[in-house]
Structures are given as C-alpha cells and as structure tokens.
From TrEMBL:
Comp. bias (Polar residues): 1-20
The protein's name: Uncharacterized protein
Segments of skewed composition (Basic and acidic residues): 96-114
Highest taxon listed in the record's lineage: Eukaryota
Organism of origin: Suillus placidus
Phylogenetic lineage: Eukaryota, Fungi, Dikarya, Basidiomycota, Agaricomycotina
Region called Disordered, residue ranges: 1-26, 92-128, 337-359
Amino acid sequence: MSDNAGMTQTLSSNPTSEVQPASKVQHKFDQASVTKCLKLVDDFGKGLISKGDALLEIQLILQSAIGESDSLTQQDFKPGFTHFLQLLDHASGDLSSDKERGRNANEPERRESDLPSPRPCSSAIIKERELRSKLRRQNLSEEDESDESGDEHEYILRGKRRKLTSERLQFYPWLEPKQYRHVSHQKAEELTLDWRAPDLKKVLSGHYSTSIDPKQTQSLGKGFEITLSQPTTTHKVKTFGDWSIVTDLWIEALTFIMPWKEDELRSYKRYLSGFFIDVHYALHSRIIDFDKACRLKIEGQKYLRFDSISKFRHLKVSHLSSLGMVAYSELHQLGSTTGDKSSGKFTGGRKKSRFESSG
C-alpha cells in the first residue's frame, strides 16, 4: 500500500492529479476518502475483491466526498476517478504476472503432444459428409451417362486413374476385362500385375491381325460393336524389331491403366535394349527368352517391379551367360546336331582304302 500511497501523494494536495487549465479552480479530496480508495486498490491487488467491485466502491466514495465538501464539484470527479483507475490497472498487471510465475513454478511443462487435439465442430463434419456424398453421387451419375451414351469408345479420365473400355481390350488381349473394367475405383497400391504379365506373341498377333472371330463379337446398340476375342497367333517375336514394337505396345497399354508405372516400364525397356546392342544378332533369341522369363517372374510375384534389376540376376546367368543352364543346353543340342551331320558327311564322302575295297 506504500507504493500506491506514494503514487497518490499529489492527489491529496491536488484533486485532479493532471495538469488542469489555469482557468479552473483546483481542490483536493479529503484524506479519509483517499485512504478508503487506496485500501480498495490494495485489496484488489491481493485478490480479495474484483476490479469491478473496486471501481464501484471508489465511485461511491468520491461522489460522497464531493457531496459532503463545499469546495469539490462534479468536475473534480473525473480526474480523481481516472487516477484510481490507473492504480487498479497497474495492480492488475502485477497480479497477472504473479499468477503466471506461480503457475510456471507449480505446473510441469506441457508438450505440444500432451495438448488435446482440436475437434472439428459438428457442423463442419456434417458439411464434409454432405460434400463427399454429393461427389459420390456425381461420379455415379457420370459413369451411368457414359455407359448409356454413344461415347462408349472414349477413355474416361478420372484423376490419375483411368477406366479401360472394352474396345481397348481387343488391341491388348492379355488384359482381363473383369480386372481392368473399373480401374478408377481401385487403389493404386492394390492394382498390380499379379498373374497378368503380357504375352508378346498375342500382342504382336493382335497388332498385325486383320480378322476377328465373329462369334465373339458383341453388339452394344446404336451401331457400335466390340470384341473381346484373342486373335489367332500367327506372328512370333524373332528379331529385335519385333520385340521393340510389341514392348512399346504393352508399355503403352499398361501406362494407360497405371500411369504411375511409366518410368518403371521405360527403365525396363532400356535395360533390355542394351543387351540387343551388346550381344550378336545371331543370339538375340536368348535375350527374347530372357525377357519372357523376367515377365513370368513378375507375373508370379505380386509386388515385384520391372525395374528391380537385381531380382533378374539369376535369370540373366541362365539365359545369357555361356555357363547358364539354358544357354548350355542350347549349345550342347546345337553341337550334337552339327556333329551328327558332319560325321555323316565325313563317312559318306571319304574315299575307301584299298583294304576296305578288297575286303
């Protein structure tokens, strides 16, 4: 209370505590009223009363002092009340700082992870559910319209996933319609090549084939027809040119269905193309067999990627190395066939000796 008394020592001698114009006559509040007001400020600083109650009591004390005094007027009320209001504000700041220091000393530090996570209001949750339901209904209506309209042959783009139409399947016959009909409704991590590796013979035959089995052709109405038939295998992949054509075709097809696999498939083609450059063209059939073995391995393992080069190391040894089982068996078979032919020629073509002719 001594601090507040020191701050109000001018109030008892100067009733306004502010510089007033010279034209106004300055008066002072009596010492008893000032003491009561200072006690209220001190009680507020101790937390005994609220700030609002202190202001009301100070207002009553000052009004009572003005009514009992012959020299004080209502013009003296405002500067006196403002002065005690400043004292209350000062005490309020000190009280807040004391409480903060006490809280920090008594309570342990709280990490951000310990704080309760804010929960969205119910109205926000309702709006989000309504929006999701609206988008779901819109997607279903668009899908129904696309099935009923004459644009059945168009590719429907849904974000990064695509819907494969039946017309596309006749060019890539190894794709199963049931598996890829509604690709857009399937998660990317669930869409794999499990048991659906491309068959290069079917791809090449479908690329060059000009005839379609009419028994497997279906009519969609409105003059549209599609086919899910597989063309008769009439072409085999024998050269690097054939292999490059069919590889581009099935990479294009799978990229259409799985856009996120484009880099993986292109990397696989670059990997195999290097062997066609380094290996003699007479042995390119081994590279084609190696490619087939890699595709079969990927087909048998659900999450094996085409760019997992280290997983194909043993297949590379089997098909491309001279020590491999496949390459060795081919060389052994070729050598035995050549040896039989050469021995036959040698036996049949050599001249008989005099002893053999005479015997």
